[in-house]
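Figure caption, in words: inputs first, then the predicted bound structure.
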Amino acid sequence: MTFDLLLSGGELVFPNAGVRTGSIAVRDGRIAALLAPGEQARARRTVDCRGKWVMPGLIDPHTHIGFGSNETDFLTESRSAAVGGVTGLLTFHRSNDLRQSTGPWRERGERQSLIDFGFHFGVTSRLHVETLPECAREFGVTSVKVYLMYKGAPGAAKGFTEIDDGLLYAAMLQAARIPNGVVGVHCENVEVIPVFREPLKAAGRNDLTAWDEQSPGFLEAENVFRVVYFGEKAECPVNIVHMSSAESLDIVRRARKPGRAPIHVETCAHYLALTSRSPIGFLGKVNPPLRSQGDVEALWEGIRDGAVTTVGSDHVPRKRETKGPDIWKASAGFPGIGVLLPILIHEGVHKRGLPIERIAAVTSANVADLYAITGKGRIAVGMDADFVVVDPDREVLIDAATQESFSDYSPYEGMRFKGAPVCTILRGCTLAVDGIVHPEARAAPSGRYLHRR
Ligand SMILES: [Zn+2]
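Bound structure (zinc ion present):
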């Protein structure tokens, strides 16, 4: 029998389980066989993976496609993802009426995306809550996000007038009835922030550390407490997205118990690699803010022991010109999907000694499990042939010009990370090699919509 593709003699990474030397045979876009060392197979094409890790392609659970250019983000940001070893993403979709907007947005992704993609719904109104079951069914979306930092005046400035604790709780009651439903929440107590912010502004502060001081970690933790408490009462699985602080993780650890609805934790690469004292100025402005080294270490400990469920990029592909003129007016968020994996390998495996199978778990298998993405996230017969082949020892120098993103900067510009994706494969087809998008993938994007149940 001849296979379509053979990934030959690699160190196969099984999320949460371990690493084993072997080969992977692919047919019709799926994993057809796993071969032990020495077992032979014929294939039309062979990729020599000796000395390399072969991981499931990453699924980035947190991206903001459309925040750069609505017209072209699916194209450019999926290229950036492919270069970084990411073969799937979930992006937040938000509009006044999700019933009208979701179909056209999905069609744009199907035309443009090089990688598979799915949606989380942004819930900001009573209409969203009421129409959630029908939208979940029709569009295959099982996850929503509620933005507690857009309560009151900050929300009104963005056009949201209905965000309050009642909306949060009502969303939980609805999501609890949806199969695999989960409510993600942006936790930051926006009502207390001005108490810190106004004196900092009055003192003329204009630095990245001030952004942390205006919304300290305990304001996240306070919201986390409310969310996990409501989640227990509503019997709804909840997810603390982009968790930034040690105190927040502590609260989750204490609140988890057998019999209650699950509490998931997502953190992001920047909370694992940067602090409020990193010398990157306004480029490092993000919500929630970058924290201290102690917070960084607590989140890594959470990845090591399983307290953290998933890790994403919170990719926001805006231009450098929006990151100013001062810390108060600069836009929040930055690009990151293309550097997610090198950062996690460098900081997690090389610097802190985490096993690579833990990195694979939080970026593939756990994402697939949490968001009901079937057939992906693991190396096993029958699964989609989505892989990233990684050279553990090769360094990447971060240069925004090579990231393929709409964005023209990186908060990691000039930094070096050890652990480079050398080949990205989606359903057996090559998307990128050595940091370059494959010409065929560039010419004919083949990403599919992840309809979830
Ligand atoms: Zn958020």
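Residues 217-234 form the longest helix (18 residues).
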